[in-house]
Amino acid sequence: MIELDAVAYSYGGGEIFSDVSVNLEQGSFYFLTGPSGAGKTTFLKLCYGGLLPTAGHVRVFGAKVCSLERDQVAMMRRKIGIVQQDVQFLDHLPVSDNIVLPLTISDRNSDLAAPDLDDLMNWVGLTDRARGLPEELSGGERQRAALARAVIMSPDIVLADEPTGNVDWEMSKRLLYLLTELNQMGKTVLIATHDLSLIRAAKAQVQARVLRISKRGVHLAGANL
Amino acid sequence: MIELDAVAYSYGGGEIFSDVSVNLEQGSFYFLTGPSGAGKTTFLKLCYGGLLPTAGHVRVFGAKVCSLERDQVAMMRRKIGIVQQDVQFLDHLPVSDNIVLPLTISDRNSDLAAPDLDDLMNWVGLTDRARGLPEELSGGERQRAALARAVIMSPDIVLADEPTGNVDWEMSKRLLYLLTELNQMGKTVLIATHDLSLIRAAKAQVQARVLRISKRGVHLAGANL
Amino acid sequence: MTPVLSLLRNLIFGDIRADSVVPPSGFTNQLTLFISGAMAFLAVFGLALSLASGRLATKWNNELARTATIRIIAPPDQLAGKTEATLKVLQTTSGVAEARALTGVEQQALLAPWLGHDLRLDLLPLPQLVEIISEKVGFDATGLRLRLLAEVPGAILDNHDRLRLPLLDAVFRMQLLGWGVLVLIFAVVAAMVTLGTNVSLAANAQVVNVLRLLGATDSYIKQAFVRRLTIKTFVGSTLGILLGLLTIWAMPSVDKSHGFLSGIELQGEGWIISLLLPFVFGVVAFVATVNAANQVLRKIS
Amino acid sequence: MTPVLSLLRNLIFGDIRADSVVPPSGFTNQLTLFISGAMAFLAVFGLALSLASGRLATKWNNELARTATIRIIAPPDQLAGKTEATLKVLQTTSGVAEARALTGVEQQALLAPWLGHDLRLDLLPLPQLVEIISEKVGFDATGLRLRLLAEVPGAILDNHDRLRLPLLDAVFRMQLLGWGVLVLIFAVVAAMVTLGTNVSLAANAQVVNVLRLLGATDSYIKQAFVRRLTIKTFVGSTLGILLGLLTIWAMPSVDKSHGFLSGIELQGEGWIISLLLPFVFGVVAFVATVNAANQVLRKIS
Ligand SMILES: Nc1ncnc2c1ncn2[C@@H]1O[C@H](COP(=O)(O)OP(=O)(O)OP(=O)(O)O)[C@@H](O)[C@H]1O
Ligand SMILES: Nc1ncnc2c1ncn2[C@@H]1O[C@H](COP(=O)(O)OP(=O)(O)OP(=O)(O)O)[C@@H](O)[C@H]1O
Ligand SMILES: [Mg+2]
Ligand SMILES: [Mg+2]
Predict the structure, then answer these.
(1) Gap between the Cα atoms of D130 and D107, Å rounded
(2) Which of B38, C128, C195, D195 sits a CA distance of 20 to 30 A from D69?
(3) Which segments of chain C have a pLDDT < 70?
(4) Comparison of pLDDT for D257 and A223, the residue scoring more
């Protein structure tokens, strides 16, 4: 699905990554971990074309990201569900409208049955908050809304950056369950997190691989965390 | 230091708190916990006058917050170090300027020796990033910068909302250490968090009391978490 | 041109739902509303000034161009005959609507400022004056002069050119000034809308980011912003123009008899042009917004 | 008044470091710069129009008020004597700078448009015209009329009132229009700066929030914003005015001989007033900003 081929990246200062080659296989479940400031967010941005590598190539769905037209990038993103670390919404639209926004944009609003939306809202515990505005959400509620928005199109790939940083343990497990369900449907999932207990919990449910960022590289971690 | 007296709060819908009476004693170390959306952030805002209670009274340093003039509230806040959940900076100023901003505002820049600032930056691991802009920080780096900003005036009270939500375990312990140090100097500390392992770790270092939000009330939790 | 046309079609018939992604009442919208309102308000005055000058020019031109005088100098006994002959010539001159000899009283009135009222003109060997009122098209002055020279020696045509030209020149200048102000105002509107679009897109960077992240194409984003801003400009300028018209209408009417600068007021075509202004503003805003949006969106990655 | 004064003092001498908390080149600053520039540009034209009208009014007033004519009607043999007597009366009239009888040629030139050039005036019993040029202060027309009636019967004073008044009225209207445009422009500037401050504070809500959280007082926040916006307005209007002056200076100079509307150009006092405009804009901006900031800050908790 997503292939990084000898990728290097630098924001202008020192290199964050140098010569990283990773292949995220279809239908797999990945965790990306590493200390704060290691480059987890940067890695995710490279995956969805939010940043272009300073060297090497990123291929998504087989196409080189750097050679895509702007509109082609837009089409590509419709097949990727993204949860950013600093979650952003359209602040003037109610939470539920924000969650169905990916459908609105690709003009597929009719694809979604109302009960499905209700189920999803219920699962992430936002049924009460659906008519509120995003700025009225608590920190954890924002993250849950963002995850709901990322999965509503049942995208081929889900890239989630610290999706459980602000939610309690019970809720973390519910969110994790949502992602493992998607994975079981054959979707690729990548979660960046510093929360090792989340990774341990996931390993009980799904065959997850752990990518660890260290020394400007990304390596598959062994069984022990 | 901070006294809540029969406080109730509602954002307009249902009540978040009703009849909460809590007294945060000087020199104590508190954790505030509860599930996502329970009202942790709301509680902190009530403590520093960011919200005024819909019923009851909040007293900070002995003064009723609701009867303070705007300028008196400003003076009160100079003695409280606050880490918000959605950390905000002045985006046009370098990280180091943002961290010393509380001193700039109260015109006390000369109070701070350069080595002290360097020590602090080093402890939170931001020495490299000091000249960068806030938007160039990673999620965890932002939280660390916010904590540094909150403690730089060595305030009488530190109120921190999920200060470790985006940092790894090693860094969490360093930040916790910073706060226990302050506590040892006689300052009052209140940390809102959903991270039970952080609370457990703290209990080894400092005599921490845990406040738990449940059923629209705030209760002192027992020894077992 | 085609992308602009399709954008225009979308603007009018496009997916209304897509609009909702742009904040409806952000402060940049407010600003656009206000700026276009203020500019439209000023534009009405510029327009009124232009039109008033234009009217004045036409009036003077008509009054002076459509009247001319023939002066007949002859010994008193031949005067009546020559007047007769002149009038006959004028009857067969195409473009002359009316011609008549002035009476003694009228001649006296004309000369009064110089000679006083109490002068008995009939004692003077004065020339006879014949007043001509031409048709709209006017008559051929040179041709008439030549005919008079041949047929009625002593009859001299004076078509007031000396008086008319400097006045017309002055009025032309005023008119130019008015139009200049209008052009200036449109330039300011275009510049402000361009800046406004930049500001709006910059202020709504988060909106653009979210839309991009979720797979919105450039044209989708652009359309929403362009529509909002164009509509705001249209509404703002409509309000500004209404306010301007109201102000002009409320201004004390000017005593027409002075005739020189018949006040700053709108008539017929003025009202119509004023009511067209919002559309002109809208088009200016549309073009400026599309340009600015294209540039900004290309910059934001 | 005292808080405003102390704010003003802070504005000029205040803690420069405090400024840095407001983004230096945010888009609202840019917008303020641009708006005040555009308005100042228009203001220069309004000013030029007012001043040009004023000049014109003065000129016409001078030309017409300072000249007057006396018409002496008498039998040909008494004419010379009466002229003599009139001139003597005028010599002892205070306010008359110069008086002289027109020559035959001059009288002919005056009457030519009505009577033609080839009329021999010396054959006509025409009145004698005496031209008066008054001093700045002017003379007492009624008094002179009475004296002439007593001492030189047949000499009639004509001081051109009938010609002058409608012209002056018209020019007065133009002048009013020019000042009206100026007032309008200042109102627009004040409104825009008010709105701009609102926008700026709203756009910088995050800045205000951060400052509040860290214990900044209202006056600290206000001072920083007010200084930024006032300075931007000042700079913007200076640029706009310079551009306006340059444009006016570059406009083709008008042939003065037409005299009617001597173009839209600045002279002496015009240049000075123009260069004062930025300060006026600055003050308008200052007052508007302080007001808006007071209101907005009271609203944001
Ligand atoms: N726009 C930028 N300009 C310059 N440096 C940047 C920029 N964005 C990130 N960085 C730096 O690059 C490094 C990696 O950042 P990144 O956000 O990828 O870290 P992360 O692993 O996501 O950290 P965290 O767990 O704290 O979110 C950090 O040191 C950060 O300061
Ligand atoms: N401005 C607001 N308007 C209306 N409701 C609000 C507002 N802010 C918060 N709420 C609601 O109040 C409740 C408590 O919010 P609060 O932010 O205090 O929760 P929290 O305990 O901090 O949660 P989290 O751990 O997710 O940050 C939530 O359900 C939230 O949706
Ligand atoms: Mg990150
Ligand atoms: Mg919270």
Answers:
(1) 10
(2) C128
(3) 1-19, 24-29, 31, 49, 53, 56-57, 59-66, 109-126, 136-137, 159-175, 177-178, 181, 250-268, 300-301
(4) A223
Q: Please tell me the residue having the least CA distance from ligand 2 atom 8.
A: A136
Q: In the structure encoding, which two tokens stand for residue D200, read together?
A: 């700026």
Query: Cβ of C260 and D169 within 8 Å?
Result: yes
Euclidean distance between CA atoms C210 and C47, whole angstroms: 44
Closest-CA residue of chain A to C206 = A88
- pLDDT at residue D13 tops 60: no
| Number of domains forming the structure of chain D | 2
Are both D179 and D50 inside the same structural domain? yes
Domain that holds residue C128: 74-153
Task: State in Å: Cα A72 to ligand 1 middle.
Answer: 27
Residues D179 and D270 in one domain: yes
pLDDT of the residue at B47: 95
Residue D116 counted as domain residue:
yes
* Short-list D26, D42, D89, CA closest to D264: D42
State the distance from the centre of ligand 3 to the C-alpha of C279, rounded, in angstroms.
Answer: 49
Phi and psi at C84, nearest 5°, equal: -50, -55
Q: Are C197 and C295 in the same domain? A: yes
Q: Is the dihedral of CA A71, A75, A76, A81 positive or negative?
A: positive
Contact D50, D264 (CB under 8 A): no
DSSP reduced 3-state for B63: strand
User: CA angle C131-C134-C140, nearest 5°?
Assistant: 105
In a domain, C161, yes or no: no
Cβ-Cβ pairs closer than 8 A, B with D, add up to 56
> What is the residue-level pLDDT of chain B in tens, covering all 225 positions?
899 999 999 998 889 999 999 999 999 999 999 999 999 999 999 999 999 999 999 999 999 999 998 889 999 999 999 999 988 999 889 999 999 999 988 887 777 777 788 889 998 889 999 999 999 999 999 999 999 999 998 899 999 999 988 888 888 998 999 899 999 999 999 999 988 888 988 888 888 899 999 889 998 887 556
How many alpha carbons fall within 13 Å on the CB side of residue B216? 11
pLDDT tens per residue, range A8-40: 999 988 899 999 999 999 999 999 999 999 999
Domain closes at, from C119, C153, C187: C153
**Closest residue of A to B143, CA-based?**
A36
* DSSP characters over C55-66: HHHHHHHHHHHS
C174 and C148 part of one domain: no
D53-90: per-residue pLDDT in tens? 677 667 666 666 667 778 787 777 888 888 888 888 88
Do the beta carbons of residue A123 and residue A87 sit within 8 Å? no
ipTM over 0.90: no
Ligand nearest to the CA of A45: 1
Question: Do chains A and D meet with 3 or more Cβ pairs nearer than 8 Å?
Answer: no
C-alpha–C-alpha distance, residues A193 and D102, integer Å:
106
Q: Where a domain ends, among D153, D184, D209?
A: D153
pLDDT of residue D171 exceeding 60: yes
Same domain, D56 and D131: no
Which chains have 3+ CB pairs within 8 A of A?
B, C
Within 10 angstroms of residue B91's Cβ, the number of other Cβ atoms is: 14
Instruction: Please indicate, yes or no, whether residues C101 and C170 belong to a single structural domain of this protein.
Output: no
Distance CA A56, CA D92 (A): 106
Extract the tokens encoding A209: 């691989």
- Same domain (yes/no): D229, D273: yes
Do D121 and D47 belong together in one domain?
no
Kind plus residue range of the DSSP H or E element containing B192:
strand B188-192
C271 belongs to a structural domain: yes
In a 10 Å sphere around its CB, with 0-12 CB exposed, 13-18 middle and 19+ buried, how is residue B55 labelled? Answer: middle
